[in-house]
Amino acid sequence: MSSARENTVAAPTDTVTVVYDERVLAHQPDTNAAFLPGRMDKRIRQIIAGLDVPWKYPEHPGRVTAIRSLLEQSPLPGLSWRSGRAATQEELAQVHTAHYLSDIFRLRGQNAWLDVDTTAVSPGSVEAAEVAAGCALEAVDAVMEGATETAFAVVRPPGHHAEPVRARGFCLFNNVAVAATHAQTEWGCQRVMIVDWDAHHGNGTQDIFWADPDVLFIDLHRAAPFYPGSGTLEEVGAGIGEGSTVNIPMPDGAGDLAYLKAFNDIIVPAADWFSPDLILVSAGFDPHRFDLALDVSYQGFGAMTGVLRQLARRHCQGRLVFVLEGGYNLESLANGVHAVLQVLTGGEVPPPLVRGMAEVEAAAAFHREAFLDTERN
């Protein structure tokens, strides 16, 4: 693997760096604030007014503070922290058009809606989004420098819905796509693999790398019509990039066993065929049942992490980077991230959860002497 920067030797195993910057907290859209007037504002206000319950912006600072709080309460050995930085306009322009970036930068200090799906900015959002992308870049640098085997960028706003010319799904800049192009241009990675396990399809990432044969994009998500409605099996890329997009739509309620089967039957052979120089993960934690879309457990997140770590060690000296995407229940979000980091720091890879089996086994043990281990008189 040739590189623009000099690659060091592989980092010690089970070392993990969490990249975080408090500036990501400044993204705080507030529906009670005055937004830039226009048809978008009127339309979204009508949608919100028609809801049966009070509505607050789901993607809020409490998401990352919940993660930090749990990591402070339940620290993990081998975990270190690294500060982030703001991505430059040139770095963002690797995946977004100049016109789009200009439009977003003009919104500094403003409250504005960007999409009818309620994507919005507040006065501090543009800098927060620049820093979110920059944290993903720092995570790539950390593993490529050999400072750590794996890294996790705890960031917001998320990124995988952001398209080259459009903000969508609470996403302004596509953090994982910026990280992938950074790995290619700055570190000379010839082949980058992105696995997106967020409950929602990563339409933006797919769009950016649709015709790129050097980025293998694999996305497991709840099937359409679940938002954003894309990600069918037949969406496989185009031109010389045909086959480098792999979509795995999941039915409502799919859990650990289905996800691990997808990993073992699709992702593992795809990675072995592609032989990546770096593996990136768009890590959303809304597949957990608390977000009401799918049924992946904390053990499931840990088991998937174990598979990806094994692939990274086999193909790219363990270089594996996670970038936070969705997950809106604070309990399952924080515990899901902790489960991933526990495996990365050397904890035992848990078996997938088969929901209900432990309870049935306990019930059988409780009732056994009543009618299973004794003869009826």
From TrEMBL:
Gene Ontology process terms (BP): epigenetic regulation of gene expression
Protein name per UniProt: Histone deacetylase
PANTHER family in the cross-refs: HISTONE DEACETYLASE 14, CHLOROPLASTIC, HISTONE DEACETYLASE HDAC1-RELATED
UniProt source species: Kineobactrum salinum
Domain Histone deacetylase: start-end pairs: 58-343
Coiled-coil stretches: none
GO cellular component, one term: cytoplasm
Entries under CDD domains matching the protein: HDAC_classII
GO MF: histone deacetylase activity
Similarity comment: Belongs to the histone deacetylase family.
